[in-house]
Design goal:
Blueprint: H1 3-7, H2 10-21, E1 34-37, E2 50-53, H3 59-71
Antiparallel strand pairs: 1-2
Amino acid sequence: MCVYLVSQLAVPVALVNERLSEGLEPNDSHAFRQVRCPDTGVECQGYGEVRAAVRVVPRRSARLMRQQSAAGRPQQEGGEA
């Protein structure tokens, strides 16, 4: 993963923390739903753009997504298999 892409997550993560501390739904924010980095790295000779969606998922769903990706199965929305 690109360190420059990870650095773009600082503001969205702060926004999620703020919304959680206020008791609001963190995914209802209209700002910072995606972050991007213009450099895809040496594998693609630095051409292109990497985008990442930012959203909060429950731990159970995140664990299931990791298990599915490790098993090579496609991930389903909502965390149910």
